[in-house]
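Possible regression after last week's pipeline update?

I re-ran a chain I had predicted before the update to compare outputs. Posting the input and the new output here so someone can diff against the archived version. Not blocking, just want to make sure nothing changed silently.
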Amino acid sequence: MKRLLLFTLFIPFVGGSGFTRVTTSSEIPLADVRTGKWPISLEKWVGHPDTSFVLLFRDQGVMMAEVMDTLPFKDLHQLRYLDSAFSVLNNDGDIANFDRFSIKRTTKRVDGTSYLLRYQEGATEFRQQEVSILRSTIRKL
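New output (post-update):
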């Protein structure tokens, strides 16, 4: 009988659900930079201990499937580095390298200025007007 009583006392610790704190988190869309087949959006994730930001985009390197990548930013300070990266890329071929991602500026005759964002295995391309939407959203925060 004592063994049964002791066993029931340890079940919450073994299962991991005994004394866990329930946190509510929410995802707040800040900007739909691009919609359609190749979407890009900026979201604010609000959790119990902190707030973070994510840039969601469809990987343009995968054509046969829809692979969405999530580029996380720990806080607003890190997100503002993304804004500053776009501002220092002035010439064709300039590259801004960060720990987890990189951005390269290219100029094409037909499309004009674009930026290639690479994160882990994924990549997406921003046009100048999409960069303007993203930068104005970051500056409003």
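Follow-up from reviewer: compared with the archived run. The chain has a mean pLDDT of 84. Marking as no regression found.
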